[in-house]
Amino acid sequence: MDLGSILIRLCLVDRDDVAKALERQAEETPKRPIGKMLVEAGKLESDQLLAALALQVRLKSKSRKESMEATSQLLERARSELMARMKRANSK
What we know:
This protein is mainly α. Helices cover about 75% and strands about 0% of the residues. The chain is built from five helices and no strands. It starts with a helix and ends with a helix.
């Protein structure tokens, strides 16, 4: 699963944010990673990006069958963990 899709499914950014970043990326040489672009644009925090990248690696390391079965569970767990972190950070 690509990073943009993961970020959208985790409700960290919306489709429009990803689409705009991809448009900008297509115009660049060399191309910057989309995650870095979203952080620089203030659409995403660096710890959120790292969590999404870690999830992406976990999803890629699973077999296809396991990945298909586990993707929704992993995404929901990661989204819950990120929301909890954000609440703790905002309450400080």
